[in-house]
Amino acid sequence: MHILFLTDNFPPEVNAPASRTFEHCREWVKAGHQVTVVTCAPNFPKGKVFDGYRNKLWQTETVEGIRVVRVWSYITANEGFARRVLDYQSYMVSAIVASLFIRKVDLIIGTSPQFFTACAAYVVSRYKFRPYIFELRDLWPESIKAVGAMKNERAIAFLEWLELFLYRKSAKVVSVTRSFKDILIRRGIDGSKIEVITNGVDISQFKPRPKDAELTEKLGMKGKFVAGYIGTHGLAHGLETLLEAAERLRGQDFVFLFLGDGARKEALKQMAAEKKLDNVVFIDSVPKADVPRYWSLLDVSVIHLKKTDLFTTVIPSKLFESMGMGLPVLHGVEGESADIVREEGAGIPFEPENAEQLCAALVRLKSNPAELDEFRARCLAGAKNFDRTNLALRMMRILEDTVARR
Question: What is the model's pTM?
Answer without folding.
Answer: 0.86
